[in-house]
Protein: Xanthine phosphoribosyltransferase
Amino acid sequence: MELLKQRIIKDGRIKPGNIVKVDSFLNHQMDVVLLGEIGEEFARRFADQPVTKILTIEASGIGIATIAALHFGNVPVVFAKKAKSKNLDGALYLSQVESFTHGTVSEIQVSKKFITRDDCVLILDDFLARGRALLGLIDIVKQSGASLAGCGIVIEKGFQEGGQTLRDMGVRLESLAIIDRADENGFVFRN
Structure:
């Protein structure tokens, strides 16, 4: 998605450890016009799937998933919670997720009443690095018995193993921008 790549070049920053910072437009401050374009692109790429729910993980994926849901006919968005909450009641799907950025392991949770075997679930998230968050979300979809439409990622770090791991598993993965290199010389994108 050329618009996204140009925005990454213009406003993205690279921090030590190959951390790609896009907090000025994607995952802290959000450019909702850009998110609308992103949502429209995901809807175009997954138009062949009968998506009934969009699943993401808190917190950065929520804005992306919410705006994208409007382009899928206003389907519900469900987000996996990373922390135990008194608001979550009843039966839960649980999965372990290791965060590359934060260096932590979380037990993500989704109420079983929100994803069932009758659903076709599309997973959306902002970044894909090592793939741990997506693997946890895919595990939740499998636990539910729902079908997986695929995974949509705004920015994939192509120089890390997550994308290849998921593709090798046969997961349909649509990344809007794949960065093959991010260093002091800038960004290099996969065509």
About this structure: The longest strand covers residues 147-157. The domain at 2-81+90-156+178-189 is CATH 3.40.50.2020 (Rossmann fold). The mean pLDDT is 93.
